Amino acid sequence: MKPVFTYTKGMTAVDTSYCPGCTHGIAHRLIAETLEEMGKLGDAIGVAPIGCAVQAHKFMNVEMCESAHGRAPAVASGIKRVHPDKLVFTYQGDGDLASIGMGEIVHAAARGEKICTFFINNCIYGMTSGQMAPTTLIGQKTTTSQEGRTREQAGMPIKMSELLSNLDCAVYIERVALNSPANIRAAKKAVRRAFEVQEKKLGFAFVELLSTCPTNWGVTPQDAMKWLGDKMIPYYPLGVFRNPEEVRA
Amino acid sequence: MTEKVLMKGNEAFAEAAIRGGARFYFGYPITPQSEIPEYLSRELPRRGGTFLQAESELGAVNMAYGAAAAGGDVFLSSSSPGIALMQEGMSFLCSSEVPVVILNVSRGGPGIGGIQPGQADYFQATRGGGNGDYKLIVFAPASVQEAIDLIYEAVPLANAWQNPVFILADGILGQMMEPVRLPEPRPFLEEKDIRAKKPWALTGYGGDDSGRRIVKSLRMQPDELEAHVEKLFRKYERAQKELCRYESVGIEDADIVFVAFGTVSRIARESIDLLAAQGIKAGLIRPISLWPFPYAAFDALGKKTKLVISAELSMGQLIEDVKLGVNGRYPVALIHRTGGMLPTSVEVADKARQLYQDIIKG
After folding, report:
1. Residues B144, B287: one domain?
2. Over the stretch B225-239, which tens digit does the pLDDT of each residue have?
3. Between 1.25.40.10, 3.50.50.60, 3.40.50.10610, 3.40.50.970, what CATH number should domain A24-247 receive?
4. Contact between chains at B214 and A86 (C-beta distance less than 8 A)
5. Which domain holds residue B303?
């Protein structure tokens, strides 16, 4: 009998530490499955961020290191220089990447580092329990914007994919969402293209994955998926921002 | 050994790092050490190495961490305010036991301070400027040749101890030219060498069965973190036994014993001659390892000694270790300049004589 479902070898047997309804597990799995399908699990090196995914190495069955808050792209740049033929990736949240790590991500992209960055944007700081992130939407209530974020007080949420699209060596940039089976399938294709860009040594590849944080948003897992679709996607439109000819389907 | 050549300190430090085996360099321009990234940007690619100019010192130290976690032999340099920015990384390197050779061509502080030489980074280097319980292995050269030898040795030493080795030079050493002999180059490590020599390093687990490697710093469980820090400190305890280095000059029957490192130790040597001409016998303890500090050097002081003087380019940082070494057995005084100012040997001798005569008079 043909099995209809199997675990990917890209994930360990360890239960994740993520909350119910959090999409980190999906994002991990897309990366892990892709590396398995490419036959690259043993040739990949990942960099975990500070944030809920700091222990991503417990769950993804690839060699990984932790990094200080926001520094993952610099760490990955160093790893890639030692192992230019390995697939090197960072996995970072929005506080890590778009706030404290803005310098590192912009310059890694500008240098065209031949690495992939998977950017988990859930509009909030997760691990520190729900503070305003640079990606927090206008009106969104967080523990440091208790009446809702305002433009006057905190400016506008940063659109990282659009921002990085101004850099010539950031050759592949796509924003996807993890809120529906169709979007998740599209997200997996984006993950695959990002690794292919790196394999072909074309430049920096960036996939922004719109994600949920039901715990800190204060909603149920089902409502979180809806909130992502209703609130996040209108401000953070899905799509391909940069796409080199070599990987176009 | 090669022919003697005349080299500027910073270029000699950079060359020593390459010859020591450091294949990877990450840096950011800052005076008075910018000749180092300049030299390495030219020389490393020529010899099969990698030079990468970082966006900041934060970027540089984290690139260094990544490359070293991946098994590369890495050299990193900066000067005082840049080294301050790197402290996050130093704590992280020690915690995750990743070896890197780091050079501080130090200048005056605090803040941006100035660009002239200083030694006011002593606490930062020896006490740890980053968070948490950790130690850097710290050496302080007093000549360009000694800096070359220490940097060359630091590459295998950092690997052996799986800990950053920190060279605290000062702006004078970086900017001066001296005749030096360069050591024979060590070959750079290739990937197969990394797998053989650094089984903990990230290389991807494909093609070998040694298992999946993780380089980490986070330990959420307090008992696990405590056990890890205690393990680090067992290593540091061993380092205290094995890595203390100093030079002593005429201390057994000295009236005055100077303690000085780096450039100031050279000034103190001249002051010793000046004092001898005035009938005062002075000696010198020159710590070469600042951490671990050679406290035992002070056990060789004799009954004749009336005064121990810490001579330094700071408001009095080395003096704390001098007092720990002296342990109440002799009076301890400070002779210092700061802000990039250097005392002359005459100034040091005059102040020392004054302090000595005050003690004799009681």
Report:
1. no
2. 999 999 999 999 999
3. 3.40.50.970
4. no
5. 247-361
The reply to whether B65 and B136 lie within a common domain is yes
Q: What digits encode the pLDDT tens for the residues B192-214?
A: 999 999 999 999 998 666 689 99
Percent helix, percent strand, percent coil in chain B, to nearest 5? 45, 20, 35
User: Which residues of chain A from 91 to 110 reach within 8 Å of chain B, CB to CB?
Assistant: 103-104, 106-107
Instruction: Please tell me the pTM assigned to this model.
Output: 0.97
With CB atoms and an 8 Å threshold, state whether A63 touches B202.
Answer: yes
Q: Tell me what pLDDT residue B97 has.
A: 98
Please choose, from the candidates A147, A148, A103, the residue with its C-alpha nearest in 3D space to the C-alpha of residue A123.
A148
**A57–B204 C-beta distance less than 8 A:** no
ipTM of the complex: 0.97
**Same domain, yes or no: B18 and B99:** yes
CB pairs under 8 A between A and B: 124
pLDDT at B39: 98
Based on the structure, what is the number of domains in chain B? 2
